[in-house]
UniProtKB/TrEMBL annotation:
Keywords: DNA-directed RNA polymerase, Nucleotidyltransferase, Transcription, Transferase. GO terms for cellular component: DNA-directed RNA polymerase complex. GO terms for molecular function: DNA binding; DNA-directed RNA polymerase activity; ribonucleoside binding. The keyword Lyase does not apply. Its EC number is 2.7.7.6. One of its GO terms (biological process) is DNA-templated transcription. It holds the Pfam family RNA_pol_Rpb2_5. It comes from Planchonella obovata. This is DNA-directed RNA polymerase.
Length: 146
């Protein structure tokens, strides 16, 4: 392909709009000059907020609308994914993303770029406890080995 950056952006945009299944993984390995597309089900993936220009795409009004819905059918998790606020990232794609642990990291990256850890965040954790995934987060003391 003549413009692999544009191809990757297009595939991710399609996935964020749910035109392509949300479980599809898109990985560009610049060093190996490869574009890998994973379509198999059952791969480990986790939800993350999408970040553009060091800002979350989801806004307070979106969260308030989610809180004020009257029935579960009025939106919810699926709407957050289909509107492009949340994206599932698999373990392969995680290697090529820059994930902010908290919103405070994004704020400091915008306000003090020279002191920030990174100024190229692509995603943000929904909550730091979800770094291990939803199921693993309920295991007591996962950081203690027996």
């Amino acid at each position: 392909h003549r413009d692999p950056d544009m191809l990757v952006k297009t595939l991710r945009r399609l996935r964020r709009r749910v035109d392509v299944n949300t479980e599809v993984g898109v990985v560009r390995d610049i060093r190996l000059k490869e574009l890998r597309i994973y379509t198999d089900y059952g791969r480990c993936s986790r939800p993350l907020f999408i970040v553009e220009k060091q800002r979350l795409l989801i806004k307070k009004k979106d969260i308030q609308a989610l809180q004020q819905r009257e029935t579960p059918e009025d939106g919810g998790w699926h709407d957050l994914v289909s509107k492009g606020f949340i994206e599932y990232i698999d373990t392969e794609e995680e290697e090529t993303t820059m994930i902010s642990m908290t919103i405070n990291d994004l704020v400091s990256a915008r306000l003090n770029p020279e002191e920030a850890y990174s100024d190229t965040y692509t995603h943000c954790e929904i909550h730091p406890s979800l770094i291990l995934g939803v199921c693993a987060s309920i295991i007591p003391f996962p950081d203690h080995n027996q």
